[in-house]
Amino acid sequence: MGEIQAGQSGGSRSNLSRRVRVCMVVLGAVAAVIGLVLLLLPSGQASFGWFAYAPLSNSPFIPPGVLVSPHSQIGIVLFVIGLAMLAFGAGWMLGHRQAARHQRFPDPGSPGI
Question: What is the mean pLDDT of the segment spanning 74-93?
């Protein structure tokens, strides 16, 4: 049942693998671009802060531990995940291309099987 019948090839599996590689590269690029846009967009004014204490009214209040806005944090995470997916997908595509080239043109110095 798992054997390939005469006249059939493993083309559907190869086609699926190619689609997965291309989708990974495209989705990684899209995620990286969206993350970069979110990271570079200016975040709005803080909806919290101290306003009644006069000597500190000229300086903004930044609560401890919050140095990057949630908007920017999401952008950083999307950018990093997108770059990782893009690199993995591109490496997979290049490795598959290299393996296909060696199948078509074997090394002349390698011993024959």
Answer: 92
